[in-house]
């Protein structure tokens, strides 16, 4: 028996990790990373669109004078 907080060294580290060999857990992590890339690209597009709108409004305002 190991004291509390000590890892069981008889078990390989790959098996000690949660979901280390679980194909479903790997798939969930992979899909989550895809979703994060999608959200990141949507935020980036929104920011670019906002700056473009501000630029167009300022250009229109300056163009009047």
TrEMBL record:
Matches recorded under Pfam families: DUF3511 (PF12023)
Chain spans, region Disordered: 1-27
Cited PANTHER family: DOMAIN PROTEIN, PUTATIVE (DUF3511)-RELATED, EXPRESSED PROTEIN
Protein name: Uncharacterized protein
């Amino acid at each position: 028996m190991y004291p509390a907080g000590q890892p069981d060294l008889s078990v390989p580290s790959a098996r000690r990790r949660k979901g280390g060999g679980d194909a479903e857990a790997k798939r969930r992590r992979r899909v989550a990373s895809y979703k994060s890339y999608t959200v990141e690209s949507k935020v980036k597009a929104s920011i670019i669109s906002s700056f473009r709108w501000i630029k167009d409004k300022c250009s229109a305002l300056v163009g009047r004078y």
